[in-house]
Protein backbone atom coordinates (compact mmCIF):
# COMPACT_ATOMS: atom_id res chain seq x y z
CA UNK A 1 0.00 0.00 0.00
CA UNK A 2 2.88 2.33 0.79
CA UNK A 3 4.22 1.87 -2.76
CA UNK A 4 0.73 2.43 -4.17
CA UNK A 5 0.26 5.69 -2.30
CA UNK A 6 3.74 6.77 -3.36
CA UNK A 7 2.76 6.41 -7.01
CA UNK A 8 -0.63 8.14 -6.67
CA UNK A 9 -0.14 9.71 -3.23
CA UNK A 10 -0.62 13.44 -3.68
CA UNK A 11 -4.21 14.59 -3.41
CA UNK A 12 -3.88 16.36 -6.77
CA UNK A 13 -3.21 13.36 -8.98
CA UNK A 14 -6.56 11.60 -8.44
CA UNK A 15 -8.39 14.89 -9.08
CA UNK A 16 -6.38 15.54 -12.28
CA UNK A 17 -7.00 11.98 -13.53
CA UNK A 18 -10.70 12.35 -12.74
CA UNK A 19 -10.82 15.75 -14.50
CA UNK A 20 -9.20 14.38 -17.68
CA UNK A 21 -11.55 11.41 -17.61
CA UNK A 22 -12.13 9.61 -20.89
CA UNK A 23 -11.46 12.56 -23.20
CA UNK A 24 -8.50 14.32 -24.82
CA UNK A 25 -8.03 17.66 -23.15
CA UNK A 26 -5.64 20.64 -23.04
CA UNK A 27 -3.74 22.20 -20.14
CA UNK A 28 -5.91 25.29 -20.10
CA UNK A 29 -9.11 23.19 -19.93
CA UNK A 30 -7.78 21.07 -17.04
CA UNK A 31 -6.67 24.25 -15.22
CA UNK A 32 -10.06 25.92 -15.75
CA UNK A 33 -12.07 22.83 -14.77
CA UNK A 34 -10.08 22.26 -11.58
CA UNK A 35 -9.94 25.91 -10.56
CA UNK A 36 -8.21 25.11 -7.28
CA UNK A 37 -4.65 24.34 -8.40
CA UNK A 38 -1.79 26.65 -9.43
CA UNK A 39 -0.38 26.43 -12.96
CA UNK A 40 3.03 25.55 -11.50
CA UNK A 41 1.69 22.62 -9.44
CA UNK A 42 -0.51 21.42 -12.32
CA UNK A 43 2.49 21.47 -14.68
CA UNK A 44 4.57 19.40 -12.20
CA UNK A 45 1.78 16.91 -11.51
CA UNK A 46 1.07 16.43 -15.24
CA UNK A 47 4.80 15.84 -15.85
CA UNK A 48 4.88 13.16 -13.11
CA UNK A 49 1.70 11.53 -14.42
CA UNK A 50 3.26 11.34 -17.92
CA UNK A 51 6.48 9.88 -16.44
CA UNK A 52 4.39 7.32 -14.52
CA UNK A 53 2.66 6.31 -17.75
CA UNK A 54 -0.77 7.27 -16.40
CA UNK A 55 -1.40 9.98 -19.00
CA UNK A 56 0.03 10.61 -22.47
CA UNK A 57 1.06 14.03 -23.74
CA UNK A 58 0.87 14.95 -27.45
CA UNK A 59 2.36 18.14 -28.84
CA UNK A 60 1.18 19.58 -32.16
CA UNK A 61 3.60 21.87 -34.02
CA UNK A 62 1.16 24.65 -34.69
CA UNK A 63 1.10 28.34 -33.84
CA UNK A 64 0.34 28.68 -31.03
CA UNK A 65 1.63 25.19 -30.13
CA UNK A 66 -1.10 22.79 -29.02
CA UNK A 67 -0.55 20.17 -26.26
CA UNK A 68 -3.16 17.53 -25.49
CA UNK A 69 -3.42 15.04 -22.62
CA UNK A 70 -5.19 11.67 -22.62
CA UNK A 71 -5.36 8.85 -20.06
CA UNK A 72 -3.35 5.75 -21.04
CA UNK A 73 -4.88 2.27 -20.53
CA UNK A 74 -3.10 2.29 -17.15
CA UNK A 75 -4.78 5.61 -16.38
CA UNK A 76 -8.21 4.35 -17.49
CA UNK A 77 -7.72 1.36 -15.14
CA UNK A 78 -7.03 3.78 -12.28
CA UNK A 79 -9.96 6.03 -13.24
CA UNK A 80 -12.30 3.06 -12.80
CA UNK A 81 -11.11 2.66 -9.18
CA UNK A 82 -11.23 6.39 -8.52
CA UNK A 83 -14.86 6.34 -9.68
CA UNK A 84 -15.54 3.71 -7.01
CA UNK A 85 -13.96 6.02 -4.45
CA UNK A 86 -16.35 8.83 -5.37
CA UNK A 87 -19.30 6.42 -5.19
CA UNK A 88 -18.03 5.36 -1.73
CA UNK A 89 -17.72 8.99 -0.70
CA UNK A 90 -21.18 9.94 -1.98
CA UNK A 91 -22.65 6.91 -0.18
CA UNK A 92 -20.93 7.61 3.13
CA UNK A 93 -20.49 11.38 3.05
CA UNK A 94 -23.57 12.68 1.18
CA UNK A 95 -23.41 16.41 0.48
CA UNK A 96 -25.73 18.38 2.80
CA UNK A 97 -29.01 19.18 0.97
CA UNK A 98 -28.97 22.66 -0.68
CA UNK A 99 -31.13 25.05 1.38
CA UNK B 1 -13.55 13.85 -6.59
CA UNK B 2 -12.22 16.89 -4.74
CA UNK B 3 -14.53 16.11 -1.77
CA UNK B 4 -13.46 12.46 -1.89
CA UNK B 5 -9.77 13.32 -1.75
CA UNK B 6 -10.46 15.78 1.05
CA UNK B 7 -11.96 12.99 3.15
CA UNK B 8 -9.22 10.44 2.42
CA UNK B 9 -6.64 12.77 0.88
CA UNK B 10 -3.51 12.43 2.97
CA UNK B 11 -1.20 9.63 1.92
CA UNK B 12 -1.22 8.27 5.48
CA UNK B 13 -4.90 7.44 5.80
CA UNK B 14 -5.03 4.77 3.10
CA UNK B 15 -1.89 3.14 4.55
CA UNK B 16 -3.35 3.18 8.09
CA UNK B 17 -6.66 1.72 6.89
CA UNK B 18 -4.77 -0.95 4.97
CA UNK B 19 -2.59 -1.72 8.02
CA UNK B 20 -5.61 -2.13 10.33
CA UNK B 21 -7.30 -4.31 7.72
CA UNK B 22 -9.99 -6.69 8.96
CA UNK B 23 -8.67 -7.09 12.51
CA UNK B 24 -8.84 -5.33 15.86
CA UNK B 25 -5.49 -3.77 16.59
CA UNK B 26 -3.74 -1.46 19.07
CA UNK B 27 -1.87 1.81 18.53
CA UNK B 28 1.51 0.24 19.23
CA UNK B 29 0.89 -2.55 16.68
CA UNK B 30 -0.16 -0.05 13.97
CA UNK B 31 2.90 2.08 14.75
CA UNK B 32 5.24 -0.92 14.63
CA UNK B 33 3.71 -2.36 11.44
CA UNK B 34 3.87 0.96 9.59
CA UNK B 35 7.35 1.89 10.82
CA UNK B 36 7.44 5.05 8.68
CA UNK B 37 5.12 7.39 10.58
CA UNK B 38 5.69 9.44 13.74
CA UNK B 39 3.55 8.77 16.83
CA UNK B 40 2.26 12.35 16.69
CA UNK B 41 1.10 12.08 13.07
CA UNK B 42 -0.37 8.59 13.67
CA UNK B 43 -2.31 9.90 16.67
CA UNK B 44 -3.74 12.79 14.60
CA UNK B 45 -4.62 10.60 11.62
CA UNK B 46 -6.34 8.00 13.83
CA UNK B 47 -8.34 10.79 15.52
CA UNK B 48 -9.50 12.09 12.11
CA UNK B 49 -10.34 8.58 10.90
CA UNK B 50 -12.47 8.04 14.04
CA UNK B 51 -14.20 11.43 13.50
CA UNK B 52 -14.85 10.47 9.86
CA UNK B 53 -16.45 7.22 11.02
CA UNK B 54 -13.92 5.11 9.09
CA UNK B 55 -12.50 3.42 12.19
CA UNK B 56 -13.88 2.85 15.69
CA UNK B 57 -11.87 3.31 18.88
CA UNK B 58 -12.56 1.28 22.02
CA UNK B 59 -10.93 2.06 25.38
CA UNK B 60 -10.70 -0.57 28.10
CA UNK B 61 -10.33 0.65 31.70
CA UNK B 62 -7.43 -1.52 32.63
CA UNK B 63 -3.94 -0.83 33.94
CA UNK B 64 -2.23 0.04 31.71
CA UNK B 65 -5.26 1.32 29.73
CA UNK B 66 -5.91 -0.60 26.52
CA UNK B 67 -7.18 1.10 23.31
CA UNK B 68 -8.20 -0.89 20.26
CA UNK B 69 -9.04 0.20 16.72
CA UNK B 70 -11.28 -1.56 14.21
CA UNK B 71 -12.57 -0.58 10.76
CA UNK B 72 -16.27 0.35 10.67
CA UNK B 73 -18.48 -0.95 7.82
CA UNK B 74 -17.67 2.35 6.06
CA UNK B 75 -13.97 1.58 6.55
CA UNK B 76 -14.33 -1.99 5.29
CA UNK B 77 -16.05 -0.58 2.17
CA UNK B 78 -13.07 1.70 1.61
CA UNK B 79 -10.57 -1.09 2.30
CA UNK B 80 -12.11 -3.07 -0.58
CA UNK B 81 -11.36 -0.18 -2.96
CA UNK B 82 -7.88 0.35 -1.55
CA UNK B 83 -7.18 -3.33 -2.21
CA UNK B 84 -8.07 -2.71 -5.86
CA UNK B 85 -5.59 0.16 -5.88
CA UNK B 86 -2.79 -2.13 -4.71
CA UNK B 87 -3.76 -4.71 -7.35
CA UNK B 88 -3.65 -1.90 -9.93
CA UNK B 89 -0.26 -0.80 -8.65
CA UNK B 90 1.18 -4.33 -8.63
CA UNK B 91 -0.14 -4.88 -12.17
CA UNK B 92 1.24 -1.61 -13.54
CA UNK B 93 4.25 -0.98 -11.32
CA UNK B 94 5.61 -4.47 -10.53
CA UNK B 95 8.44 -4.40 -8.00
CA UNK B 96 11.85 -4.95 -9.65
CA UNK B 97 12.91 -8.62 -9.28
CA UNK B 98 15.20 -9.18 -6.25
CA UNK B 99 18.79 -9.71 -7.48
TrEMBL record, chains A, B:
Keyword check for DNA-binding: yes
One Pfam family matching this protein: HxlR
Domain HTH hxlR-type: from-to ranges: 1-97
Keywords carried by this UniProt record: DNA-binding, Transcription, Transcription regulation
Domain of life: Bacteria
Keyword Transcription regulation: yes
Stored PANTHER family: TRANSCRIPTIONAL REGULATOR, TRANSCRIPTIONAL REGULATOR, MARR FAMILY
Protein name per Swiss-Prot or TrEMBL: Helix-turn-helix transcriptional regulator
Organism whose genome encodes this protein: Chryseobacterium paridis
Amino acid sequence: MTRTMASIGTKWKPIIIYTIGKRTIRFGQIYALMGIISKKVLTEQLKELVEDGIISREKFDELPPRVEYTLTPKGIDLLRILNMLTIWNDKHNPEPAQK
